[in-house]
Structures are given as C-alpha cells and as structure tokens.
User: Fold these one by one.
Assistant:
Number 1:
Amino acid sequence: MSNHQKSHKRLTLILVCGVLLMFGFAYMLVPLYKLICQKEGINGRSGATASSMAGLSIDTTRTIKVTFLTTLHQHLPFTFKPVKPFLLIHPGERKLIYFYAENKTGHDMTVQAVPSITPGDAARFLKKTECFCFTQQYFFKGEKADMPVYFFVDPAIPSSIKEITLSYTLFDVGDFLKKQQHFTKGRIDL
Amino acid sequence: MTDQHIATQDNDHHDHDSHHGPAKGWRRWLFTTNHKDIGTLYLTLSFILMFVAGTMALLVRTELFEPGKVLLNPEFFNQMTTFHGLIMVFGVIMPAMAGLANWMIPMMIGAQDMALPRLNNWSFWLLPFAFTMLMSTFLMSGNAPDFGWTFYAPLSTTYAPKSTDFFIFSVHLMGLSSILAALNIVVTIFNMRAPAMTWMKLPMFVWSWLVTAFLLLAVMPVLAGCVTMMLMDRHFGTSFFNAAGGGDPVLFQHVFWFFGHPEVYILILPGFGVISSIIPTFSRKPLFGYHAMVYATVIIALLGLVVWVHHMFTTGAPMDAQLFFMYATMLISVPTGIKVFNWTATIFKGSLSFETPMLFALGFLVMFTIGGLSGLMISLVPSDYQYRDSYFIVAHFHYVLVSGSLFTIIAAVYYWLPKWTGRMYSERLGQWHFWLTTIGMNVTFMPMHFLGLAGMPRRIPDYALQFTDFNQICTVGAFIFGFAQLIFLYIVVMSCFSKRFPAATSQVWEGAHGLEWTIPSPAPYHTFETPPDLATVNAAAPQLE
Ligand SMILES: [Cu+2]
C-alpha cells in the first residue's frame, strides 16, 4: 500500500512538472513568435528593423508597384498620409518616400507607426534601411512633419509578385513611452 | 442498533455499507472522496448547466427568428452567444466527460477508487465557484463578457468590459480543475489497474480518457498562460497583444488556438470511447480492430497538437505555413476515418438491437461523419477563405459537438444509468427523446450550412431579409431540440428516485462486456476492494479473441 502511495507521488510530481513546463511554454510562444515573424516577415515584422543592401545589384527588367496605405488607430486626431499614393521600383533599387503627419489632438503627443505588408509572401522581401516607424515619434501640439522611409525590394523576390502594399497604422503610445524622447531623426518639420 | 443487528444477520455487501458507507446529508457531497459520488456531482453540475446554456441558445435563436430586433439588444445578444459557448464547452461537455471518467474508470480497470481521492474532491468543487463567478458578471454594472467564447484580443483586452477580470479568474479556476482531474486520471490508469489488467486489455473508454488526460495536461496550462497574459495586458502595463506597445493581436490567436484545437479533441475523444463500448454491446460482437482504435486515438491527439493555424488562415500566414497546416489537418481525417470504419465494421453482420444508447450511438455515427466531412471542406485554405466566420462554421462545429460530444454523453448516461441507479429507465420515453433530439438537431443545424454558403455571417444579431426563411426553420428546430431535453431530465430523475421501473440485473445489457458489468446494480459504494483475478479480467475483455 505504501509502495502504491510512493509511486502515486512520483508520477504526480512528474506530471506537475510537465504542467509547469507547458505554462512556461505559453510564454515561450511570445519570443518564438517574434523570431519566426522576423524570419518570415509575417505581419511586416521584418520591416521593424533596419536592413543593409550591401552587394545588391538593380534588376531593371522588373518593376514592382509599391502602394502606401495609412490608418489611424481608434480615430486618433491626426492627419497621416503618404505624399505619393504609390511608387514604381526595380528590385535592388533604393527609394525614399515621405509620410505627412499633423498633430490635431490639441496637445503634445507621442505616436508610433506599426507597419504591415501584403501579400504575406512579399513581406520578407520589402526591406527598409531607415524608417520613421523604427522609433516613437514626438509631436508638439499642432506640429506638422514629413517623415522618411528608405526602402528597397530584395531581388530574390518571387517573380509572381508584381504589387506590394505597405501599410502603416498610427498608434497613440502615450502608455508605452520609451527612453529616447523627442525622437525626430530625418524628419522635415513643416 | 437495529441496523447493525440486520447487517450482521445477512452477510452481503449491505453489511459493508453500514460500516463505511456514505455520510448523511450535505456533508456527504461536500466532503466526499468517493469516485462514484464525485462522478455524480460532476454529472449533476453538467446537467444543470446544460439547461442554463441551452436557455441562452434559445434566446439567441429567438432573436434570430426575424431580421431586426426581436427580443434582445445587440450587447445582450453578444453576451448570450459568449456564455452559451463558454458554458457548453467548459461547464457541460468537459464536466460530463469528467463525471463519466470518475464513475467508470475505476470500475473498468478493477480499482477501488481514484488514485488521489482528496484532490478529486477539490477538482470538482472548484467548478461551482468558477461558474458562480462567471455568472456573477451579469449582476455587475456594465456588460458581462461579450467577446465570444474565443475571447480574441483586443476585444477581450483593450475594448473589454470591466467584468472581464472575473471571466479571467473563472477560466483560471476551470483550468486548474481540469488539470487536477486529468492528473488524477493519468495516475489512476497508470498505477491502479488490477494486476491482470494489462495495457492492451484496457477498455477503449479508458484508453480514450488516458489520451484525453494527456492532452488536457499539455494544453490547459497554455490556456492559463493565455488568460494570464490578458490580465497583464489589462492591468500591469504589458503589451503582449497590443501593437502600440510592440505586441501583436495575432499572437493571441496563436496562443489561444494552440490550446483551442486540441480542446476539440478533449471534447470528443472520451465520446469515441463511449461509442466503442456501446456499439459492440448492441451488435453482440467484439469491437472490430481494437489495436487500430488505440493507435488511431493516439495519432489523432498527436496530430491535433500541430494544426492550430487552420483557425487563422486569413491572418496572413506565409503560403508554406498555410499548406503545412492544411495538409496536417486533412491528415487527421485518416485516423478518424479508421475509427468510423471500425465502428461500421463492428455493426456489420452483428445481431443488432436498438435500445436508446444504441440509437444515440448510431445517430452519432451518421451525424458526426457529416460534421467531419464539412470539417474537411473548411480545412482547405481556398474554401476556408469563403466559409470563415459564416454560419457554415456554426453548422460544422455544432454537428461535431452536438452529435459528437453531447450525443455520446447522452448515450453513455442511458447505457450506464441502470448500473448507477439500479433501475432501468423508461425505454419508450428514451426512444421519444432520441427521435425528437435527432430531428430537432438536424432541423436546427442543417439549414445553417446553406445560410453560411449564402453568406450569412456568424455572431451578428441581425441579418439580411433573404435569410429569413431558413433562420425561422433553425429556430423552430432549436425549440424542438431544447424542449426534448426535458424528457431526458424526466427520465433520469425517474430512474434515480422512482420505484416504478424494474430493477436492473448486474449484467443489464445482454451483450455487454467489461468489469463494470460483473458488479451488482446499483454499484455498491465501494467496489473492487480486492482486485479482480485474471479469469474475470480476461472474460471481460472480448477484444482478446
Ligand atoms: Cu481546429
């Protein structure tokens, strides 16, 4: 009988360890997801960090249309739009596009744009060397600015992809302020 | 004094009861560590909650009887669909399966009780508190949780009502309860089997529950992690699911469905075990392909862990990932098909009789297959783009959950009720119950396939005019289906408390095999205090032939 109880205890202990491990696994999914998204470009995540374009040559035989889209999160009182609705680009060529933003909230505000790229399979080939979306952006009351994105399309992109949409959603990040305040690199104040 | 006198006179198991039988009154139920009592508690709670969640479903169907507002305002409609789903999954199907496990597993493997009886008491008593807490949100100011049973972020974080915190804690309690129950079941099956009961002599019901218990242990902690992340996002300034802080709402869906898809197998696998007990009994043949059934169950569970993205095909996963999850999902129909064919082969050339448990088992076989086939349709990525979030999905999962899980639970109750209460039930009423339920169920859910294909979205209290006719058919069916369950209630209550029906023999069903049929009906409070011997175990396991 006591033998029985002992083996109950051992098995229970093993199973409890398994349960705790799986609880930890739920949290492990967070960095795992970020890693896979960055590798695969899911949800434009690869677009959230700077890439280098060393050693790429321009493929002039192909032209890809990159369309820009902007959304304001939760009716944020901002104006936010690309200065041009789309650009034509050869793979391997670097282009610059500005996004115009104006703070109409009536007070100072920190915002951040979160990128997303469709189709999903194009996401990891549209790369940025510099982007206003890499950091939070501080806007004084009524401030207007053009914010830059330098981007290129990796020539390795499948030939089936002829159009890419780069979309930004502008979030109020007042609750999630990062250290580097008043960051405005590359911005043209208007 | 007199009791003792009588007890010493006749020398059967009544003698036993007077020494360490159940305590009297409410204390018996609050403090019990007896697996049969706890099984009864689980089944009773499940039965009560079935009527609660069923009433909510009827309110939803009433609102959908006509376009425009019929009865409920949209906020309340959303709360009703949310609670209907949550309670049916966590309060009806899961506790009912746990109740069956508690009652039957020790009796099927020749054990005297569950391995961890006190833990068993706790794992049940967590549930009434969890559901009281969940239901109490209706009494709070502001809305009750209204984001659907899948509680997607940011609906359940940024935009959720204040009462969501109560929802989160009640999910924690339910999860803890399931984990403890699963733990207990695994330890019981591993350590408490009668010495003669080797792995390949285990009844399919026990095998199915063993696999289910491992699934529970694997994914309930992930659900707990998921709601904990929600809680942290809501109150502790993290942003797991909030893009503004660097999180991602799609991550929620990954964490949720990593739990959510195995959950559907948690809901159905014990039911497969029930069917594997009932069909051989009323076909008077051993189960066809016992070994294949065991392996198929294990394979279904393993595959079930790697298909969750089929719930998220439209969230922008890369093509390769979509293909992988599509093929993996389609692959599950192979082991499931093996099971369906084996049950059919068991029936083939059997000497059939159609008592109520068999009727529900056959109803399961036909209608679960319909649900399986519509599941195959939505596993295809291109079709899923069309069917997603439409009534086709509602039709699909009700075919697998109602005729899958609910029908198997009802079949199990009819099958083992005489063993539990010692009395037969009214066979005539049972037949009525079956036919009304089956007709009602099909009238409710069959038209939903066509509504979905025609483009009616789910989770909306209103719809376009052209959907009216079919919605009215659905609503009529739902009321037939719902009210038919009152017959079930009457039958069960009568079998428990009335002396009108004949007493059951220990064999109960002519063709039944298994250790549970070797003990008297009603099953005495304590059974198998000495484990059954090799001959008894072998005689009870017909799959050996
Ligand atoms: Cu699934």
Number 2:
Amino acid sequence: MNQHMGWAPALLALAITGCAAPPGVRHEADIQALVAERQAPASTGAASTPAAAPTPSIESALRDALATSPAARAIWARYGITEAEVRESLRLQNPSLGFLRLSADGGIRETTYSLSQPLLDLLFTGYRRRQGELAAQQAMQRCAAELLGLEADIRIAFIGHAAAVLAQRAGQREREAAELSAQLAARFHAAGNISELQLRREQAAASEAALLALQRDVDVAQERGHLLSLLGHSGSDSSALPEIAVPLFDAEPASLAELQQRAAVQRLDLAALRAERDLRATQARHTRRWSWFRGATLEAERETATGESARTGGGVALELPLFDSGANRRRGAAARLQLREAQLQGLTTHITNEVEARRAEVQARREAVSMHASTLIEQRERIVLLTQQRADFMLVGSFELIAARQQQFAAWRTWIESVAQLARAQIRLAQAMGRAAPDITITEMLDLEDLP
Amino acid sequence: MKISRRNLLAAAGGATFAAGMARGAEDPHAHHHHTAPAEPAAATPAHTHAAPTPAAPASAQGARITTLNGRSLPFRRVNGVKEFHLVAEEIEHEFAPGTKIKAWGYNGITPGPTIEAVEGDRVRILVTNRLPEHTSIHWHGILLPCGMDGVGGLTQPHIKPGETWAYEFTLRQHGTHMYHPHADEVVQLASGMMGLFIIHPRDRAQDAVDRDFAFLLHNWAVHPGTYRPDPSVMTDFDLWTFNSKLFPAIDPLVVRTGQRVRIRVGNLSMHDHPIHLHGFRFQVTGGDGGRWPRAQWRSEVTESVAVGQTRDIEFVADVPGDWALHCHKSHHTMNAMGHGIPNPIGVDQASLGERLSALLPGYHPMGQGGMAEHAEHSGMGHMHGPENTIPMMVGHGPFGNVEMGGMFTVLKVRDRLPDGYADPGWYEHPRGTQAWRVE
Ligand SMILES: [Cu+2]
C-alpha cells in the first residue's frame, strides 16, 4: 500500500518546489542601484546666497526626501503591492485532499482518501518562472522610474521656490522705485510744479507695482507649499527649507543623436515596457502551443472498505478540447502582444521627439539666459548710467531716471526667471533621457547680492 | 557754362590751382581725408600782388571784415574778374571744446568763408561739390541774372557730386548778403552750409568804420550725445550759434575806445533773433537791401533779425568795458538743455534724499532754489553729462559763473590794445564804477 502511495509525496514535493520558485525578488537594493546609476555625482559647487542660520543643503534635503517623504514611501508601498501580486500569480494551485466515508447496512464501512493536484501549472513551471522574472523586473523598473520622477519634481520645486524668492526680492526693489517716484511726484505737486493728473499717474504706477509685488508674495507662498509637500514637511517647519539658490548648470555637450541614443538605453519606462512586451511575446508563444490544453488533474486515491483489502490508485483527468479549442485565447494573446509592440513603438518615437524638444528648449532657454547676462543686464545698467548723466545736465527729469532704475530691477527679475526656466528645462531634458538631473556640476549660482 | 577740368586748368594757368583742382576732379573721395580748404593758393597773402586784398584798417578806406571765428575767402584776378572758389564738403566742426559734429560746410568750415567784394566787381565763383549729394548755391539778396541765382532745378541743373560749376556776375549793389544751398535745403542748411557775401560800396568812405564785424545766426539740432545735426527738427533746436560757435567759444569783438564799429548780422536759422548790445545805443544802418539813407537809420539797443534777413548796426564805442552782445531770447543763450522736464524749482527733494541715493547712488537732487547751482556743479566738474554735450550754462567771468551759452559773446572796448585785436582779457573797472554789496 505504502509503495503504491510512493508517488503522491513526490507530487507534493514537486508542488512545493514549484511554489518556491518565484523569480528572485531583488528588492530595494536593486531598485536603489537602478536609481543610483542614473544619478549625477553629488554636486559640490552649489554656492548660494548666504543665509543667517545654517539650513540644509539641497542635496541633503533631497536625500532625506527620497528616503522618508510620503511620496517616496507611497512609491515603495506601490512596489510592495505589485511585487506581492507577482509572487501570488506564481504560486501553484493548492492540491486537494479528499476524505469520504460511506456506511452501508450490515456494518460495512467504506473510506476513501484522495489527493488531487491540478497539473497545468506544474507542467509549465519554466514558462511561469520566466514570466515572473519579467514581471518583477518590470515592477522594479517602474518603481525606480517613479523615484527618479520624484527626484526631478523635487529639484524643480527647489528651483521654483528659489526663483520665486529671488524674483520677489527684485520685484520688491521695483516696487520701492515706483513708490519713491510717487513720493517725489507728491513733492513736485506740493511745489505746484506738476498737475494732479501727473501725480495720479505716478501714484497709479506705484500701486500697480505694489500689486505685482503682492502677486510675487503669493508665488513664493505657493512654491514654498509645493516644495514642503514634496519634501514631506509641514509649513511650520521652516528650517526644513534649503538655502535659496538658482543653479546655472553647464551646457550639455552631446549631440542630439547621442542624447537620443542614451535615452533609448537609460529610460526605465522604456525598459519596463520592453519587459512587458517580452512577457507578452512569451505568453503568446506559449498560448499558441498549449491553448488546447486547459485542464489536467493528477489524482491519487486510497480506498478501504470493511473486510476488504485497501485499494490504492491514481489517475489523470484531462479536459478534452472539443467545444473550446483555445482559438480565442490564441487571438487574445497575439493581440496583447501587438498592443505592447505598438506601445513600445509609440514610446520609442515619443522619447526621440521628447529629447529633441527638450534639448531645443534648453538651447533657447540658455540663449535667453546668456542674452540677459551678456546684453540686457549690461544694457539696463548702462541706460541707468547714461540717464543719470542726462539728469545731471538737466536734459531729463528725475522720474525718467527712477524709471530706468526700475527697468534695471525688472531685467534682473526676468534674468532670475530665465535662469530658473533653463534649470527646469535641463532637469526635464535629463528626465527625458532617463537620468535624475543634469550629470554636470553647477557652475554658477544667481545671486541677488550682485544687484547694484 | 559747364566747367571741365581741362578748361579750368586753362583758366587758372597756374600749377598751384591745378594741384588744388586735380584733387577734387580725380579723387571724388578726397573730401573724406581732406579738411583744408581747396582755395586758390595764388590768392593767399603770400601772393597779394596777384590779388590785392582790402587794405589794412583805415577809416577812409573802410575796415576789412572780421568774421567771428572765421575768415574771408581769398580770390584771384583772372582777366579782370575776381575769381573765388568754394568747395562744398563734409567737415568736422567744433562748436566749443568738447562738442564736435560732422557738419557740411565750405572750404573746411561752417559757415563758409566770407566772400568780400566791391560794388562794380565782376566776380566768378567756382563751386566744387564734394558732398555725397548734389547741391547748388543761391546768392541771397544779390542782384544778378536769373540763371545765376542758384536754385537747383529751377534756374540750373544741380551740381552733382564731383562736379565744379561757375557762377559769374557783376555786383550792382553793396550791403550785407548771404549764400546758401538751394538744393535739399532742409538737410544742407541744417548741416551748416551757409556763408556771408559782403559787398563794399565803390566809395569806401561812404560807410567807413574802424571795425567791421560779421556773423551768421544759426540753430542746430545736435541732440545730446549725438554727432550729426538732425535735419528733421523744425523748431525745437538744441544749440544756437554765432558763426556756428557756442559761448564761450565765440570770439569777443575787440575794439579800441572811440572807434566806430559796425556789426553785420545775418540770419539763416529757423527763428528770429532780437540781438541786444549792452552799453550803447546803436544805429541800424542797413540790411539786405543795402545801406539805408541816413534818414532811415534807427536808434536801438536791440534789433530783431528775422529769418533770411541781415542787419547792420553801427555805433561809436566810446565807453570802455566788457559789454554783453547776445540774442535776447533767454533760451537762445543756453547750450544743451532739456525741454519739458519736470520743473524742480521749489521742490523739496532733500527729505527724500537718503532714499533717493539708496536707489540711485549717483543722484544729485537739484534745482529747488533755481538752476544756477547746475552751472556750479557742472563747472566744477562734479557731474559728467552725456558725451559730446556742453552744459546748458557755462562760462567763468572775473566775478563768477557767467551762466550763459549759445548766442552770447562780449564786446571788449579798451583804451589801449597793446596786443592788437587779440583778446585783452577781462576789463578792470576803475574804482567807484562798479556795483558794490551794501550788506
Ligand atoms: Cu535768438
């Protein structure tokens, strides 16, 4: 009898082996490696506006945020869910243990033990292992991509906040100039030298400048809230904000083709989609071959009856593909593969275009920054000097001189904004290439202290 | 009659004239490098035997014209004709130290040299055009055949760049007259093309004076910081000049006490100018129409010279001193000045001073008590205005800032002039003849 049951434990052992076989879950370390190999070396040249109290550096705040912020924790949790689902899908179906006792008149008792194991999963273990590997790989890649996206969002939020603060300060100078102009107009009016109309015009201009300055206060508050949320701090914890700096990154020296090529290699969403496509391809092949084969069950049974010797046996039940030969499953699997192929092609094209567009944006933004630095700032400065000379020779009035100064402050503000737009565009370009941030060190930091 | 280089050479009959003309005829770009007047060398003082210029001052003979900051045009006699040569060209002109422009003028200067001749003379005036556009010369107020009147398109074809033309006529009048282009006038006049044409009476005793000064009034749209007159301006000019010069660069009129003085003033500007002389009653003795009969003379201290007019005034300079001579429109005795700027007089800017200088470190609040402090600051070099721009009020006198500019100069009457008619410096007032501070 025992000898006859010999292959049942073997069946169980096989099932257990099968269920122990989900592809290795590489977990955090592998995901961190995916992220790290796409990150720039920590930039050391991040000079910035000196602050009174020590504040966290951008890089350390970023590291903390990527480890502990709610957004980062949510990314890890989503990965955990996906990973569990992958493991779940790889488990063998459980075997069924049957026990049946029948009694007949005359004290006859019949007892049946049965063990059955669906055979389908068991037979395709290798196929399922491959599927599991692809699914797990995909989950990791998507998780790493989300982490990189979060990092980019946080860097952009830093820049947005810093630019808003610096623009607020420049705007404050614009406002002061307009207010001074209005106060001077009041003196001219009091002396009887300008009309109320001229006075009101100056005052209205000052009011408008004040209103614009208020809008810049709002911008700072919004940028600050956005940044704090991404960092996972509450607004009251103001020490969490890093020092104010708008970085001016180096130029990206590579050619467009080179960038596009790098993007094709580095983009994690593309890699994940490739894994998905491979998974569907394997699935379609498998379905083509085995679609007729739906159900098969291995059964072992032991029957004892009163007064009789025990009977042991086993068998296989096979579903006959009479009414359902699996044609629809084959078609479905082929269509799912086609869908992934199409998506892959779409994403590849999109990345090529995105890199080109982002690169063009970076170039235009860089041009805007350099136009500010090399021309507009100097032109405005020169205009103030030349207007001053004319005011000294009583060729123009004081109001024209103050207005020239106000325009100089405005040029500083648009310079700050253009540097921030460049930095954002560079981060978005890096993101389009599947990298965390420009892989270049910060060469310069815009500093309002330079404002004359 | 059109003059070619060949018959010019024939007419000149002299190597020096040929050299002068060859430059113009062979190298149309010569004017870019050439500022010296291409005047006939034979008519320079070294050759006075060929061209006797008016004699040294002698009352009976009449004085030579003193063109303020200028000169008279030499001539040569060719077969009984006085032949002058004007070269129209672009020049560099200085209004006063530190203010230079690209002007258009004649023989290297603006106004062009004064043409001096005598009633009854047959004159031939050669005109070479080295400008980038055509020109012509109109002899303003002179009686002549219509074809010599110089109105481009109307009485003659224009004188094209590189061409030399001749005007020839007999002078049938005397008086103070002018010459100027009658082609693209708005540009050419605005750029400085003008000159005096003074005809002495045949009988020099008739209008004899000891000192005979002449200048042209003009206005210039040379905006601060620019280097070329802007011909689009109609009335709101930047600079107002006597013979294209600004005070303090205008020559003084130097005379000896007791001399009879004539001042001839022509106006080719866009405004009328009441010319005022301190210290004397003068007689207005003539105009474009010639010398007036004595019965028509008027005794004045200010004579308005209208646009396109000339006026002669005469007086005996019998009181020594430094006497102002200027246009009486006060904005015409200012240099570069802003118009329409907010008026700072009486405005208390001081209480905003700290905030103003925080915003504008170089800011000088000025004008609360008046604009004289501006002359003080700019005169002391505390402030530097735009390039190529002279401050609105300038001039240091023996007692302080003169606070003038533009159409202002000084008639200097002295008992003794040891250095001839060179500027004798400031007048030393005899004791008891000068205003004094009471308290
Ligand atoms: Cu005037």
